[in-house]
Amino acid sequence: MLKPSVVKELKTIVGPDNLFTSPEELVVYSYDATKRESLPWAVARPAATEEVSKILILANREHFPVIPRGAGTGMSGGSVPVQGGVVLSFERMNHILEINEDDLIAVVEPGVVTGDLQREVESRGLFYPPDPASHQFCTMGGNVAECAGGLRAVKYGVTKDYVLGLEVVLPTGEVIRTGARTAKSVAGYDLTKLMVGSEGTLGTATKIIVKLLPLPESVRTLSAFFSTIENAAVAASSITAARILPRALELVDQAALRAVESYLKQDISNGAAAMLIVEVDGPIESTERDIGRVEELMTRAGAMRVTRAETDVEREQIWKARRAISPALYTIKPKKVNEDIVVPRSKIPDILRAISEIAKRHDLLIVNFGHAGDGNIHTNIMIDEAEAERAEIAVKEIFEATLRLGGSISGEHGIGLSKARYLPMELGFDALGVMKKIKTTLDPNNILNPGKIFLNDE
Ligand code: MLT
Ligand code: ZN
User: Fold this and answer.
1) 52 pLDDT above the threshold of 90
2) Distance between CA 334 and CA 384 in Å, rounded?
């Protein structure tokens, strides 16, 4: 708990209206998309870097944990205050500070909603490609902390590929600047890359400089439906084999389709067992040609039906359904163990086979969907309480199969609380030791996000 004198000091830093301590207010900041829950002791809503810095200096003096938080859309428990402490909510630091059309950069505060930045730059003919499925709610600070991926990573990469520089408040409260406003810079260690994806354990970003691209001239999207998931996976590989690089290549299995159909009360697939969504972008002549070739490939691979989106509204409908899968899954079972494995894309049929075998052996419902184009499959074990123990064994087996195939246990959701104990399986203890040293150097008092146990408990 916080001493009354500390509460008073926090109120002085952020203003009395921006420090919450009542249970009704705290509960709103107690969970994320994993549905893990733990009440913080207080929530501070700073409006400026200086306030963030002062809170961290106070935290070091008074020894309370600090947990940075964006919109709480994280999928690995990163913003859940499992050890109590003060949640640092960035909802007031939500300004797009600059869009520089000549330098092709934007500078934003961490609380900017990713979709708002996308829309703002698109209105000027520019493009911010990282596109997490939760783009309407998630924030840039969270995207940086977790190195968010999303639907367009197959062609455009992930958050780290767009962050040119950061202003970061270190756990000590010191403010540092990393990177530059330029497209290139090799001066010194690449601290920007170290920070992006460090899950709020090494510092918290208070300004983010991202690079922008010209908005592609046109976009074409299609959905293809298959009678088996294997056929869909093979069809997905045929696109890469034909040397077409779509900007999105998404796979949705039967259980995910049924869940989203009942959630949206809409028949999307006409009973199909799997769906692929393919989107290409570029000059009109190239997208027209590519979407035609993809359609042919889908038909050749045995698609039961291929539907091109002919209008923006039709395109949006496809993406609305895809983005709704995650919430829709909760209509199947009360809990989902949401894994985020990634394998070399050619191994998708192998990992799907392995998962199906694991599901059968443990008598569990495992739903698969995700970014087939980059090998990143969201494997969701749908459970009730009685199945929790079996699910845990299944997770370990899925991770083992993933690593055997040359993959990684998290493609984009992060390690967080969910996968902390599995990290040694992938990294080994030597690499964990190095990470622990970096964390300890920057945060000797273990103030910043100590709940992120992968650095503390191993
Ligand atoms: C997605 O691609 O929909 C997200 O990463 C969320 C999820 O895995 O549930
Ligand atoms: Zn995803």
Assistant:
1) yes
2) 6
Please give the single-letter amino acid code of residue 422.
Y
DSSP code for 125: T
Contacts 24+ apart (CB under 8 A), 402-407: 402/341, 402/342, 402/343, 402/351, 405/343, 405/344, 405/347, 405/350, 405/351, 405/354, 406/343, 406/344, 406/347, 407/341, 407/342, 407/343, 407/344, 407/347, 407/351, 407/375
Residue nearest to atom 8 of ligand 1 (CA): 378
As a whole number, mean pLDDT of residues 374-384 equals 96
DSSP class per residue in 157-182: --GGGTEEEEEEE-TTS-EEEEE-SS
CB proximity list for 210: less than 8 A, separation 6 or greater: 105, 106, 107, 108, 117, 128, 140, 162, 163, 164
Angle at 203 between CA 42 and CA 77, to 5 degrees: 60
pTM: predicted TM-score of the whole model, two decimal places: 0.96
Q: How far apart are CA 391 and CA 222, in angstroms?
A: 34
Q: Which amino acid is at 204?
A: T
Instruction: Ligand 1, residue 33: give the atom nearest the CA.
Output: 9
Task: Flag whether pLDDT at 101 surpasses 60.
Answer: yes
The pair phi, psi for residue 136, each rounded to 5°, is -70, -20
Per-residue pLDDT of 134-170, as tens digits, reads 999 999 999 999 999 999 999 999 999 999 999 999 9
Q: Half-sphere exposure of residue 77, counting CA atoms within 13 Å on the CB side?
A: 21
| Phi, psi (deg, nearest 5) at residue 244 | -105, 135
| Cα(355)–Cα(345) distance, integer angstroms | 15
Q: Within 13 A of 362's CA, how many CA atoms are on the CB side?
A: 24
Is residue 410 within 6 Å of ligand 1 at its C-beta?
A: no
The Cα 379–Cα 387 span in angstroms is 16
**246 CB under 6 A from ligand 1?**
no
The protein residue with its alpha carbon nearest to ligand 1, atom 5, reads 133
